Amino acid sequence: MTPLADMIPTMSDPDLKALRANASRLSESGSTVQMNTAAEIIPLIDGELARRAAAPSTLVKKPRAPAKKKALPATGHQTALPSKAA
Fold first, then answer.
1. Is 47 in contact with 8 (CB distance < 8 Å)?
2. What's the pLDDT score for residue 1?
3. Do the beta carbons of residue 20 and residue 43 sit within 8 Å?
4. pLDDT at 86
5. Is the pLDDT of residue 72 over 80?
6. Model-level pTM?
7. Virtual CA dihedral for 59, 22, 24, 29, nearest 10 degrees?
């Protein structure tokens, strides 16, 4: 299994914020192992969040496709068969 510290750079921003909140909660109240692990991981999370905040945004907006034109509602009886006289 991959250690949590190796997974931090690949996590999304909302995931990092949730992980930070959980780690700070566990560092205050939890088992001894949880408290130690949380205390070790919090500086790594903070460093990654700071690195992302300092980096220029590389998100490129893709142009939206043009809106589809709405079809006009059908009028009259649509299931009528063509007449044989035509």
1. no
2. 38
3. no
4. 53
5. no
6. 0.61
7. 180
The number of C-alpha atoms within 13 Å of 70 and in the hemisphere containing its C-beta is 3
Structure tokens belonging to residue 21: 């909140």
- Identify the CA nearest to 22 among candidates 83, 14, 71, 74: 14
For the chain, give the mean pLDDT: 83
Whether residue 21 is predicted with pLDDT greater than 50 in this model: the reply is yes
Mark out the alpha helices in the chain (DSSP H runs): 4-7, 13-28, 32-54
Burial 28-44 (b: 16+ CB within 10 A, else e): eeeeeeeeebbeebbeb
C-alpha separations of 61 from 15, 30, 39, 55, 64 in Å:
22, 42, 37, 17, 9
